[in-house]
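Possible regression after last week's pipeline update?

I re-ran a chain I had predicted before the update to compare outputs. Posting the input and the new output here so someone can diff against the archived version. Not blocking, just want to make sure nothing changed silently.
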Amino acid sequence: MREALLPALALGILALPAAAQTIEELTRSLPLHVSVLTTRGMRPEWDETSENVYFLHRLVGDVFKVSVKTRQITPVTVSVHHGGIQRCLVMSNGDLLLGIGDIDTGDIERDKEKLGLFVLKKNEPTRFYPLGETCEEGPAVSRKGLKIAWTTPGQLDIRVGEIVYEDGVPKLVDRKTIVSYREATGIVRLETQDFRPPDDRELVFTHYSGNAGDPFFNSDVYGYDFASGKIVDYTKSPESYDEAEGIFPDGQSTFLLDLQKRAESKQMTRRGLRSGPRSD
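New output (post-update):
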């Protein structure tokens, strides 16, 4: 049997009171092992040295990085013209994989359906290199090499490719589709999540199913094994929204974004994911 993802810990959620809470009050209520890197930003991403965290300053905007040691924040992309960055991931060599839309449309939801993939070199922060592919939602990067994965617009296919550098220019080669639901009879959508550490032999993705009114009604965490080509449904949770939101470095656990769709339980929570293949 394949190695299963096992829960490493239970994650407690800090419940905010009904009244607005200041940053100072929130900081004082944090556990001793939790500290504040920045009071703004979203989509944090560790760099390859684990010394800095990259983040977007808003949902569609620019990339910044903050030093874990000094808390100093440095702008990364503000000097380059672009149409609005929605995704930023750090590749194993320290370069950034960016998902860029068109902020001029004024439609964030439509933009995320067709994000152009670009590379921003760590030692050349003034130029975006296009990879000639578009994705919907966020791509995934390997920490063992320069392999990336992404969901194509329409969310019916997941593709992978390898980034190579020719005369210093990053290019995407060996592109292929690894998961496709174009022939599916039901309403299905896919979303690339993460390569599973520590060996990156599996790609974890979200499998949505539903109806014409809500194609994302049901959601489960799936895994694609690169060696065998087999796909595993890890959660098998009908009428529930389950999405893997970050895998632990040892590959044994993941945070699970879980939204119960039943009428009696609509609160969004995060919990550990026990996701070995189950028997029905």
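Follow-up from reviewer: compared with the archived run. Confidence is low (pLDDT under 50) at residues 1-18, 261-280. Marking as no regression found.
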